[in-house]
Amino acid sequence: MSPLPPPDAGKQGSDERLPRDLAQAAGHAHHPGAAELRRLLKASGLGDVRAREALTEAHLDLVAAAARERAARGLSVADLFQEGTVGLLEAIDQFPSSDRDDFEAFARERVAQRMDLALGDEERVVQDGRMLVQAAEDYVVAESSFRSLFGRSPSDVELAEKLEWSLKRTKEIRQIVADARRRHDEELLPYLDAADVDLEALTEDEPPGGESPPSDQGGAPADDGR
């Protein structure tokens, strides 16, 4: 049986090996028979690292197949392979104390669970991002419309009423839009058209005395001869 690829420098154990290195071993490993599988599982359960690695290598083809099946659902094959490998290691560690008698079925379930959980998390992140961008766009449009109608910037209460949002949500989105304007955030920048920026509104809340003093364009006072 060929050994698993060595871990990266500074990393230890099969848990940290790069997915592509593990993938190279998939499909080329020796698959143990029933008796050998029981022996390896028992040894791994007692802390035998080599037995655990042998079991991992022997079932990487299972992980690779599951990753390919889910490749078009939001994560790369490499990311899915990494998640699935974690699931496989969990299966190896937990099988001896389980009441199951079919390790391969148990491992497939744990691999699938890890991958599907990662895909669900990724989908929620993407959806949250889309909703946030849409909310920022709605905020900027409503803000611009209010300025056009009333000639001033709206208050949070007025925007909340216009957008039919809670006051808390309106304040949160206002802060996000303000931060994006300062950072020139690439995703939100298309919604922040220069034509929407009211320079007077940007300074209307300045405290008294906040204006810059006029520059002394005349220099020193002219000598009147006295």
Name the descriptors.
226 residues, mainly alpha, 2 domains, Four Helix Bundle (Hemerythrin (Met), subunit A), single chain, rod-shaped
What do you see in this structure?
With about 230 residues, this protein is mainly α. The protein has two domains: about 110 residues, Four Helix Bundle (Hemerythrin (Met), subunit A), CATH 1.20.120.1810; about 80 residues. The protein is built from nine helices and no strands.
Radius of gyration: 31 Å
Number of domains: 2
* Average pLDDT: 77
Counted by DSSP, the helix tally is: 9
* Poorly predicted parts: 1-18, 197-215
Looking at the structure, what is the overall shape? rod-shaped
CATH topology of the largest domain: Four Helix Bundle (Hemerythrin (Met), subunit A)
Q: End-to-end distance, in Å? A: 106 Å
Measured as a percent range, the helix fraction is: 55-70%
Write down the secondary-structure element order.
HHHHHHHHH
- Strand content is under 5%
**CATH class (first level) name of the largest domain:** Mainly Alpha
Strand runs, count: 0
Second CATH tier, the architecture of the largest domain? Up-down Bundle
Concise synopsis of the structure shown:
With 226 residues, the chain is mainly alpha-helical. The protein contains 9 helices and no strands.
Helix-strand blueprint:
Layout: H1 19-25, H2 34-45, H3 49-58, H4 60-69, H5 77-94, H6 103-150, H7 156-163, H8 167-183, H9 199-203
